[in-house]
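Collaborator request, handled under Task 6.
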Amino acid sequence: MAQNVLGLSVFHHISQDDYRLLLQHLISIEHLQKTECSGLIIGKKAENIVAYYEFYSVFESSVKYLVKEETMAIGTVMESYPAGTRFALAGRAWECAEVNEKSKVIFVRPVHGISKYHGHQSPSRICIQSSSVK
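Structure tokens returned to the collaborator:
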């Protein structure tokens, strides 16, 4: 488990000894508990913390929008687009027709265009160049 956690870039500066001390401390204050198989689970005292609804508000959950053309699902995107915005998804160019924020669905219509996205830019910043530009 230490290799998995300490291998993450945000923890690269934490030594295995410091990580071990942290785990021992969390076990001693009952925030973690050892299992019979030498695993770790959330401890009794930590259950009260993580079960509290304000705890979850600290973490941003990624919102996904389902993109549909009429009743056919095209794919998902990580952000909403205003009506009229053109973007690329599933190898095609689409124009946002309507967004249902409650159900997180973006309704689109196909448009002619060429995506400027070449794999090195953020997919959320995809631009469409209309082939009918005068």
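The cover message to the collaborator said: "The radius of gyration is 23 Å. Strands lie at 32-34, 40-42, 65-69, 72-77, 86-89, 92-100, 105-111, 114-115, 128-129. Please let us know whether this matches your experimental observations."
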